[in-house]
Amino acid sequence: MNDLHTNYQGVFDGRIGFGHKPALLIVDFINAYTTPGSPLYAPDVVTAVAETTDLLLLARRADVPVIFTRVIYSRSGRDGGIFVQKVPLLRRMVEGEPLADIVPELTPAPDDVIINKQYASAFFGTPLAAMLTSLGVDTLIVTGCSTSGCVRATAVDGMQHGFRVIVPRQCVGDRHPDPHNANLFDIHSKYGDVVDKAEVVTYLQNLTAGAPAQEV
């Protein structure tokens, strides 16, 4: 086992770095994860929401595109396919259900984009990739929940669509620390850069100040 671990050192610790044109993607920060008593309530997600508020402010100051996602189904649930069969609770996520609303701490602004999705990845069955490409975005800052589900799926698809995926570790959350940490490890190993939030703050502050973005 030790030999195997040694052999992998240096193979999965590369870094992509920031590009020149970012977008901030806020994945499924909805009331279902932050409301005590909700079946999906996760205290670590509450913390991640709080950590994301200043990133959202900085992104808007720097005129960085901001995209929110939330999971929304028709009342029949037919658009949820196998996903809602696997997790029947998701069928509660319909228009008019307060638990499906984006958290008030991160209220979308008029210029922000809200994408309704039915599956884990923010890219699957949505216009996200085409929109980012048309805007010239090369760097996708991914925040949200859950780390092991929609964040991971989005990170994988983001990389596969050719975007530099940056995940500030304080700004994503999960139901339990074990899947959270395991998936951060895996995202950083293969699909993007998991970084300290301070790095993203500095990057956005430099954009706000008019400094040219540098690929790292």
Report a brief summary of the structure.
This protein is an alpha/beta fold. It has helices at residues 2-8, 31-34, 43-61, 81-86, 128-134, 147-160, 177-190, 197-208; strands at residues 22-27, 66-71, 113-117, 139-145, 164-168, 172-173, 193-195.
Question: What report would you give on this structure?
Answer:
The protein is of the alpha/beta class. It has a single domain (18-208), classed as Rossmann fold (3-Layer(aba) Sandwich). It is 38% helix and 16% strand. It has eight helices and seven strands; from the N terminus they run H-E-H-H-E-H-E-H-E-H-E-E-H-E-H. It has helices at 2-8, 31-34, 43-61, 81-86, 128-134, 147-160, 177-190, 197-208; strands at residues 22-27, 66-71, 113-117, 139-145, 164-168, 172-173, 193-195. Strands 1, 2, 3, 4, 5, 6 and 7 form a seven-stranded parallel beta sheet that branches. Helix 3 (43-61) packs parallel to helix 8 (197-208) and helix 6 (147-160) runs parallel beside helix 7. The longest helix is centred in the N-terminal third of the chain and has 19 residues, at 43-61. It is globular, with a radius of gyration of 17 Å. The two termini are 33 Å apart. The relative contact order is 0.20.
